[in-house]
């Protein structure tokens, strides 16, 4: 007879191995994600009873009686002294499944994340929108937590976070930080933003902009003198701008385009690149700081021209993803092959490595 699956013991072991995520489904052994790669754990295949008992063990008391009849549910769980966990309970082929993200207690400083120094200046903005973008698992939440923590350490402000669910828990430093969870403290992201404007905020963090209503509320908050930070699932600055504008009806897009041009302060597109030699991952970032030139490009719907500006890192602290990858190679943190595997434009990156572009040396300054 197989040993009873103990979800708490399993999560403790997964955290100890350095895993970032856990995947549990009926009929399969557990899987973990470490350094971006999925790995199968040498354990017995999980049964429906294993999953049912696991979710009953970790689900919030408010839903525990009904959770087994639910199809989708997000919630937080905590093992004191170990870690916090963002849990997604779902169904696959009618059977229960869990996908769990580990959320460490400690919030790293920007310098510890090997992120560009320009981010310290970006967050000095008094108003507008800063967006951190990238695919799932690219480190967006950690980067944003570090940005918020940096603001709190440096300035005396009121920071309101609106999340679903709350991931990192902040300690108040110079700033006071109010954390609100959708479904518990407010009904929706858009409602949370609307009511936040009546709570004397300086900075509003939105866990994710998923729809038009949330985006419209975020733009309004930025227009009325607040600094807004949030995330989008896009890969670069141009995609981000187009995604925002295309959330709205065509008849409203010219107005929205002007709003974005006026309020967008910076986009940070991020991905994590695994180094086989270092056995860890490093962030590569495309950073677009909105200048008067970029503002003009956005208003005139000429976003493709932004790519050309990003290719020259001497302009306003901007850097393209390929230059960021090249810098990681120059610092001997990742190999050229690992950089090329992560690039969306391998031909350009190969030219950078070969020194074809005039002044390429400045890319590494």
Enumerate the strands of the largest sheet in spatial order, edge to edge or round the barrel: 9-8-10-11-7-12-13
Residues in helix, %: 25-40%
Please tell me how large the radius of gyration is: 22 Å
- Quick one: how many beta strands? 13
Cα shape: globular
Order of helices and strands: HEEEHEEEHEHEEHEHEHHEEHHHHH
**Mean pLDDT across all residues, rounded?**
91
Q: How far apart lie the N and C ends?
A: 62 Å
The largest pleated sheet is described as: 7 strands, mixed
Give unreliable regions as ranges: 358-365
Count of helices? 13
Strand content: 15-25%
Secondary-structure-derived class: alpha/beta
List the keywords.
365 residues; disordered C terminus; 33% helix
Tell me what you see in this structure.
The chain is α/β, with parallel strands linked by helices. The protein has 13 helices and 13 strands. Strand 2 (31-34) and strand 3 (37-40) form a beta hairpin. Helix 5 runs parallel beside helix 6 (212-223), helix 7 crosses helix 8 and helix 12 packs antiparallel against helix 13 (346-354). Residues 358-365 have low confidence and may be disordered.
């Amino acid at each position: 007879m197989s040993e009873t699956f103990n979800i708490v013991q399993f999560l403790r072991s997964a955290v100890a191995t350095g895993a970032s995520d856990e995947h549990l489904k009926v009929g399969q052994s557990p899987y973990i994600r470490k350094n971006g790669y999925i790995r199968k754990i040498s354990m017995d295949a999980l049964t429906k009873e294993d999953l049912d008992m696991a979710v009953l063990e970790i689900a919030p008391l408010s839903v525990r009686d009904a959770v087994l009849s639910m199809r989708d549910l997000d919630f937080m769980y905590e093992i004191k002294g170990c870690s916090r966990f963002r849990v997604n309970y779902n169904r696959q082929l009618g059977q229960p499944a869990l996908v769990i993200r580990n959320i460490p207690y400690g919030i790293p400083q920007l310098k510890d994340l090997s992120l560009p120094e320009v981010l310290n200046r970006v967050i000095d903005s008094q108003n507008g929108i800063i967006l951190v973008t990238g695919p799932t698992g690219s480190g967006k939440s950690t980067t944003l937590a570090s940005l918020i923590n940096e603001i709190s350490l440096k300035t005396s402000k009121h920071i309101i976070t609106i999340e679903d669910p709350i991931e990192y828990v902040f300690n108040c430093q110079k700033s006071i930080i109010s954390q609100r969870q959708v479904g518990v403290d407010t009904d929706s992201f858009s409602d949370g933003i609307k009511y936040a404007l009546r709570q004397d905020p300086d900075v509003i963090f939105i866990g994710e902009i998923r729809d038009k209503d949330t985006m419209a509320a975020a733009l309004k908050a930025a227009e009325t003198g607040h600094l807004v930070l949030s995330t989008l699932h896009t890969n670069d600055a141009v995609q981000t701008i187009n995604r925002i504008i295309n959330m709205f009806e065509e008849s409203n897009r010219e107005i929205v385009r002007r709003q974005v041009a006026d309020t967008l302060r910076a986009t940070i597109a991020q991905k994590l690149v695994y180094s086989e030699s270092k056995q860890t991952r490093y962030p590569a970032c495309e950073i677009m700081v909105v200048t008067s030139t970029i503002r003009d490009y956005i208003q005139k719907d000429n976003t493709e021209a932004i790519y050309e500006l990003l290719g020259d890192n001497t302009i306003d602290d901007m850097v393209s993803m390929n230059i960021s990858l090249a810098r990681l190679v120059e610092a001997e943190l990742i190999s050229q092959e690992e950089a090329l595997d992560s690039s969306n434009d391998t031909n350009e990156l190969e030219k950078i490595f070969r020194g074809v572009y005039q002044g390429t040396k400045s890319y590494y300054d």
